Structure formats: C-alpha cells, structure tokens
C-alpha cells in the first residue's frame, strides 16, 4: 500500500459524524491520499471515491475492490455518476492537500519553485494564464475576493507592470513580485504571497462554485437518514457550508448570497448534527498544525424533497 503523505484532519470526528457501518455506502468526494476512505472502510462500509486529480490513483493500492472504487471526476458530478438517493453518507475535505503543496511541479506552493499551474485536475487554464492575461480589475478582484488580500490592487499593478517585460511562468517568480508589492515580510509569520496564491488557486479550480454545486448534489444523492460531513479550511468555504446547512435545516426564511434563492415553503431537507462547527482538539493540533483553521459541519438528510432553485 502506498504511504499517504497527507494527514487527514478531524479524522475521528468525521468517522463519528458519518456513523457508517457494514452495508452502508459512503462517498468520499475528495479522495486525495485516501485517509478518510481507509478509516470508513475499517467500519465495514463501502466507499465510492471522487477526485479530479489523476495522480491520486496510486493511493488506491491495497484497498478492497469489493468495497471501494474511484471515479476520476469532480465531486459536483456525483449525482450524474450515482443517481438520486443512492448513498448513506457524503464526506468532503476541502481545499488543497499537503501532498499537492509538496509537489513543486503542481505549482501550488510559493515556497517551492515550479511551473505556475495550480490545477487540481489536468484541464483548463492555469494560474500563469490568469496572471498573464487578466486585466487589472479582474486580477485584483480575484486576489481580494478569493484571497481576502487587502493589497490586491497594488499587487495586481506590480504583476501587470512586470509581465510587460516577460510573462510569469514559475511560482517563485510570482511570489517574489508579490513580496515586493507588499513591502517584504517585515517579520510576519505568514508569507506575503499566501493570500494571493490562495485566491489564484480558488479561481483556477472554481473551488467555491464547485462547493456550491457539490452540496446541492449531495442533497440529492443522500438517502433519508444519510449524513453529510464537510471539513473546511478557510472562511470562504465555511461560510458557504454554514449558509447551505442553515437554510436547508429551516433556520432562515430563505436564500443566501452564496446559494440560489429557494422556495420559502420548502420543508427542511437536513437536520443539523451540531449547531456549531466542530474544531480540532489540542492533541491533534500538536501533531498536525495544518488542522488549526479546520472546521467540521455535519447534518442528517431528512425525508423532505430536495430544495429546488426558484425560477
């Protein structure tokens, strides 16, 4: 079995929230290195993994073929692949994995030199395409909205000025320009390129649009009594998940800025397992600092129909 280079965050809490056992079928919508999948398989349940990254196939070695299969697709496509009310659980571990960050050739890291790619799959425009072609307003918006970078306009100006000399092709090249734009590190614990790289990665992979579509798909593939468990790593993701589950559990009169408007008369399609997000404990943080910003939200699918978008 291939060693997993990625520590699954809130693993025990995810397994407990799913409550899966023999005879259950669970979707691991972000298979990655298979950490969550292995833990769920250990309960006796079956797992259907989804991942758009073709490089994760190596982590399926040793998994039981009678209880596991991997589908190379986005998790938002689970409804097309599986059909409605077909599974007992859906788990999503969002964001970029440490193994992707560690692979310089993937272009996710501002600490390792590699091609400026950032694609989780192998299709579509790269981060280099965005920084070399977008106008100032479009680029600044990506950095501000998705990266929550307050110096977005200044950084965009530096990028446009530099690309007139030559296009961006490498990660460290872009990181150095961003660092100059914000005036260096000045003793900051967080690298000055952190937010900008996050913004570009989210834009390249349409991560927030994928999340919204994936939550809607999960609502449809879950059987009544099935459980949805989502682990987020930053406020943009968590806001979307919280808004979705708050709406679908009937705790708001309808609609949110992150989801399509819905019929006010719809019955709750989910019941929250916990009113608050679950955070990692001190013991986990001691061995896995990456877990620091993580949050788990979970809910049980009711027997109510799915919520349809208003016309």
For the record, the CATH class of the largest domain is Alpha Beta
CATH superfamily of the largest domain: Vaccinia Virus protein VP39
Q: What is the architecture of the largest domain at the second tier of CATH?
A: 3-Layer(aba) Sandwich
Main sheet: strands, sense, barrel = 7 strands, mixed
CATH topology of the largest domain: Rossmann fold
SS summary, helix count: 12
The count of domains is 2
Arrangement of strands in the largest sheet: 3-2-1-4-5-7-6
Order of helices and strands: HEHEEHEHHHHHHHEHEHE
Beta-strand content: 5-15%
Rg (CA only): 20 Å
- Overall pLDDT: 89
Structural features, described:
This protein has 311 residues and is an alpha/beta fold. It folds into two domains: 184 residues, Vaccinia Virus protein VP39 (Rossmann fold, 3-Layer(aba) Sandwich), CATH 3.40.50.150; 102 residues, DNA polymerase, domain 1. 36% of the residues lie in helices and 13% in strands. The chain contains twelve helices and seven strands. A seven-stranded mixed beta sheet has the order 3-2-1-4-5-7-6, sandwiched between helices. α2 links the parallel β1 and β2. α6 crosses α7. The chain starts with 10 loop residues before the first helix and ends in a 10-residue tail after the last strand.
Question: What distinguishing features does this structure have?
Answer:
single chain; 7 strands; alpha/beta; 311 residues; Rossmann fold; DNA polymerase, domain 1; 36% helix; 12 helices
């Amino acid at each position: 079995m291939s060693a997993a280079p990625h520590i699954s965050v809130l693993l025990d809490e995810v397994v407990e929230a799913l409550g899966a056992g023999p005879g259950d079928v669970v979707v691991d919508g972000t298979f990655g290195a298979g950490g969550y999948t292995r833990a769920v398989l250990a309960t006796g349940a079956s797992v259907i993994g989804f991942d758009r990254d073709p490089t994760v196939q190596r982590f399926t070695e040793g998994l039981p073929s009678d209880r596991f299969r991997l589908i190379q697709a986005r998790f938002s496509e689970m409804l097309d692949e599986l059909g409605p009310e077909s599974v007992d659980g859906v788990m999503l571990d969002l964001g970029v994995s440490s193994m992707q960050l560690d692979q310089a050739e993937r272009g996710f890291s501002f600490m390792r030199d590699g091609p400026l790619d950032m694609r989780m799959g192998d299709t579509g425009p790269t981060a280099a395409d965005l920084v070399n072609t977008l106008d100032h307003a479009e680029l600044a918006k990506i950095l501000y909205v998705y990266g929550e970078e307050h110096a977005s306009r200044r950084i965009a100006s530096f990028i446009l000025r530099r690309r007139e000399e030559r296009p961006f092709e490498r990660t460290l090249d872009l990181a150095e320009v961003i660092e100059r734009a914000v005036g260096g590190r000045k003793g900051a614990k967080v690298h000055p390129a952190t937010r900008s790289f996050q913004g570009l990665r989210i834009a390249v992979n349409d991560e927030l649009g994928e999340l919204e579509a994936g939550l809607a798909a999960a609502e449809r593939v879950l059987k009544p009594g099935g459980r949805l468990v989502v682990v987020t790593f930053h406020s943009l993701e968590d806001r979307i998940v919280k808004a979705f589950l708050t709406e679908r559990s009937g705790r708001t009169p309808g609609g949110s800025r992150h989801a399509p408007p819905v019929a006010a008369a719809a019955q709750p399609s989910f019941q929250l397992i916990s009113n608050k997000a679950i955070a990692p404990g001190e013991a986990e943080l001691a061995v896995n600092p990456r877990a620091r910003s993580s949050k788990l939200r979970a809910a049980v699918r009711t027997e109510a129909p799915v919520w349809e978008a208003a016309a």
